[in-house]
Design brief:
3-stranded mixed β-sheet; about 170 residues; single chain; mainly alpha; 3 strands; about 65% helix; globular
């Protein structure tokens, strides 16, 4: 297995982009998530997966916002969990967690059409819709900041890819 180089530098760069929102740390993993107790966002490097496409479709359909930078919108969505955390309490929180577990279990044997329907159910859960609404609202109000976040992220990502010889395979 090849050693991954520059992950700490990449994580620091993404953390810098999110610091003004109160996020303490960003770590590259295999999914996007927000860890409430640590004020930490996890993110993934793969984009253009079916789930990412469905998320962009959902945002365009529900909010009328064209997603130009899916990576940044996904990061902002996780920041939205941080910002909306106090609004999701008690029974609503319990409902969301139970539904996420149900959706996850149903995804296992679902075909593509069923998976998309389940993803959209997930996107419409109260905690998820609040986080997405926050992200879209921020992006609409601050398009220049979002574009700058994207440029900074691309610079950090390209540096990471170069260190790991990923770009050599793209020719």
């Amino acid at each position: 297995m090849a050693k991954v180089k520059g992950a700490k530098v990449l994580n620091k760069a993404i953390t810098r982009e999110l610091a003004d929102f109160g996020i303490k740390k960003a770590v590259c993993t295999d999914e996007y998530s927000y860890l409430f107790d640590k004020k930490m966002v996890t993110y993934k490097l793969t984009e253009n997966t079916v789930e990412d496409k469905w998320f962009s479709e959902f945002i365009e359909s529900r909010f009328g916002y064209e997603v130009r930078y899916p990576f940044i919108i996904s990061l902002l969505h996780e920041v939205g969990h941080h910002k909306a955390n106090d609004n999701i309490v008690g029974d609503i929180y319990d409902f969301c967690m139970a539904e996420k577990e149900r959706i996850s279990e149903e995804m296992i044997n679902a075909d593509d059409e069923e998976q998309k329907a389940l993803e959209w159910e997930y996107f419409n859960l109260p905690d998820e819709i609040m986080a997405t609404a926050w992200a879209v609202d921020y992006a609409k109000k601050h398009p220049k900041k979002v574009k700058k976040m994207w440029k900074n992220a691309v610079k950090a990502l390209m540096n990471f890819y170069e260190k790991n010889n990923v770009l050599d395979d793209i020719d």
